[in-house]
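Board notes (copied after class):
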Amino acid sequence: MDRIKKIETRVGNIETPFFMPDATKATVRGLTNGQILSTNIRELVVNTYHLMLRPGASFLDKMGGIHKFMNWDNLILTDSGGYQVYSLIHKNSALGKVNEDGAKFRSVLDGSWHDLTPEKSIQIQFDIGSDIMIVLDDPRPPEASYQIQKQAVERTIRWAKRCKTEFEKQIRERKLENYKPLLFAVVQGGKHTELRKHCADELVKIGFDGYGFGGRHIDENGVFMDEIIKITANSLPKDKPHFALGIGNPSDIVKCFFSGWDMFDCVVPSREGRHGRIFLWNDLNFIKEKGIKAYVKKNGSKSFYKTINIGNSKFKNDFSSFSNNCDCYACKNYTKSYINHLFSVKEFLGAQMATIHNLKFYAELMELLKSANK
């Protein structure tokens, strides 16, 4: 398999593929750093939009950056902040507007106005101090018209140039030539193959450390866009990492991986855990023996795992762990019955244990995909 096997970053070499849980507000909700590390997760995504509003980018810069603030020594990736801003504006135009310069938006915290330009996005990410930064792009929903998608692609390309110029400026001004973060661009184009190809080609000409799949990976009917995913990956350099932004459903991750994508992030494992949904393997022994690719080829991409809702009453008298094949803290120490009880009395320990287990499941999925990458 002709794929990149590792990414060289300023905090060390990272083997691919890998999954990054969303530490949206500088925390994976409800977990300590030690609990995260116990699941074999080493990489996190933090949210630029939320952090620029609170505690503030300048505050984080004065604190010595996000790593020191969180006491996290491993890789941290920041998004550009654009997706959250544009989502707010597209839902309610009173909250702001987008033009060629960037976005002007109203804070949902106190109503204050803020600007987010390509240059400002990069400056904020440097203040935060992340190891991988994402350029500001112009995301549109897949159902948007061809003309709107085309305009978004051209703006995404123009903004990518501005982001790279500002990135290089910040490197010089902050004297980070020997401690450089990485800069990733994002390919837009909705469900139109020619727009995706064009966007990818132009971004590659500019030159970035990695490239992401922007916008939703499913169409307006919820159908996975297999062809678009593959074509976009094939349009990008094989010696650069490919980041499938926001893709976190296990079956979608597997499909994307075998279509050419190396990095994934999503709120799914932690959010689902907090709501009592537990990810479990189907026939893990077969998968480990024959490989996940063989299992998926035989049984389909949605067949290698299942989910249970631990809050269901049927688990009240189930004194087994989530899984005999899992060595996470929850499975080693608690039964389904006990965690069912925790959810029934609304004790947060239940959500915490469910999240730990789900992150362990995702970490194991990455290990299985790494085996397929050899």
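Comment from the instructor: The CA atoms of residues 241 and 252 lie 18 Å apart. The longest strand covers residues 182-187.
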